[in-house]
UniProtKB/TrEMBL annotation:
GO terms for molecular function: (3S)-3-hydroxyacyl-CoA dehydrogenase (NAD+) activity; delta(3)-delta(2)-enoyl-CoA isomerase activity; enoyl-CoA hydratase activity. Keywords: Isomerase, Lyase, Multifunctional enzyme. It catalyses: (3S)-hydroxyhexadecanedioyl-CoA + NAD(+) = 3-oxohexadecanedioyl-CoA + NADH + H(+); a (3S)-3-hydroxyacyl-CoA + NAD(+) = a 3-oxoacyl-CoA + NADH + H(+); (3E,5Z)-octadienoyl-CoA = (2E,5Z)-octadienoyl-CoA; (3Z)-hexenoyl-CoA = (2E)-hexenoyl-CoA. GO terms for cellular component: peroxisome. Belongs to the enoyl-CoA hydratase/isomerase family. In the C-terminal section; belongs to the 3-hydroxyacyl-CoA dehydrogenase family. It comes from the Eukaryota. GO terms for biological process: fatty acid beta-oxidation. Pfam families: ECH_1. Signal peptide: none annotated. This is Peroxisomal bifunctional enzyme.
Length: 165
């Protein structure tokens, strides 16, 4: 929802402005990263007043401090697009990633169709974008979609990676 996007953007801006913060980890709750944006918001009048997800992802990408996504459960649609704006991505071994919008007749609208090919190459990105398939973390690692796959605490692993970089 727009409320969640605005809260995430506010938190990222506060972390960026705080000199004691060296890096940022974005994670979900209850073992899930994000299933994406509620498609009902696409036609709302509220959408025209707010910049929304693409603008937030651009803020992530332009942040000078490292931003690491800690992906647990699922990162689908807009959730995966958020991770694509992050500088690094750590996924739990059971995580699944994908852009399922095409199964609803939509293309990824938060710049996923631009960022994904840059990260994993055009053939693999086209396959993900046009089929809507969800890929497991191990395949995402092979493709270069994630930087690390872990069996333990994903957030802790993301923090360790953030501290390294």
């Amino acid at each position: 929802s727009f409320t969640v996007i605005e809260a995430l953007e506010d938190g990222l801006k506060r972390a960026t402005a705080d000199p004691s913060v060296k890096a940022v980890v974005i994670c979900g709750e209850n073992g899930k990263f994000s299933a994406g944006v509620d498609i009902h918001t696409f036609s709302s009048a509220e959408e025209t007043r707010r910049a929304g997800l693409p603008a937030f992802i651009s803020v992530i990408e332009s942040t000078e401090k490292p931003v690491v996504a800690a992906i647990e459960g699922i990162a689908l649609g807009g959730g995966l697009e958020v991770t694509l704006g992050c500088h690094y991505r750590v996924a739990h071994v059971q995580a699944r990633l994908g852009l399922p919008e095409v199964t609803l007749g939509l293309l990824p609208a938060a710049q996923g169709s631009q960022r994904l090919p840059r990260l994993i190459g055009l053939p693999a990105a086209l396959d993900m974008i046009t089929t809507g398939k969800h890929i497991p973390a191990a395949e995402a690692l092979k493709l270069g979609l994630v930087d690390e796959v872990v069996e333990g605490d994903t957030v802790e692993a993301a923090i360790r990676l953030a501290n390294k970089v």
